[in-house]
Amino acid sequence: WPLFEAGQTAAFSRAIAARIRQALSETPDISAVVLAQASMMGAADYLVDVTVPVLSSPQLAVDRAMEIARS
Fold first, then answer.
1. pLDDT per residue of the chain (71 residues) written in tens, 0 to 9
2. C-alpha to C-alpha distance for 35 and 40, rounded to whole angstroms
3. C-alpha span between 53 and 1 (Å, rounded)
4. Cα 45 to chain centroid, rounded
5. What's the count of helices (H) and strands (E) in the chain, helices before strands?
6. How far is the C-alpha of 22 from the C-alpha of 1, rounded, in Å?
7. pTM
């Protein structure tokens, strides 16, 4: 979090991605990653090669809101 607060968002995203990669290697039965905070969304850019889906709850919320608005 200190990286994010210092405005070092790319470093923050890389740190989040590194921790996710560690968790994926330590726990092979993980079936998806959910980036639950808007501040974590940038980590997805560093996880494009992982074998599980990487979901972003803010993006999912926007997608759902657009579906509702269109109906």
1. 888 888 889 999 999 999 999 999 999 899 999 998 889 999 999 999 999 999 887 777 788 888 899 98
2. 6
3. 24
4. 8
5. 3, 2
6. 18
7. 0.78
d(CA 60, CA 20): 19
Residue 66 in tokens: 């657009």
Q: Which amino acid is at 34?
A: V
25 within 8 A of 33, measured Cβ to Cβ: no
Torsion (CA) 44, 55, 4, 48 in degrees, nearest 10: -10
Which CA distances in Å does 51 have to 4, 28, 42, 68?
27, 11, 18, 31
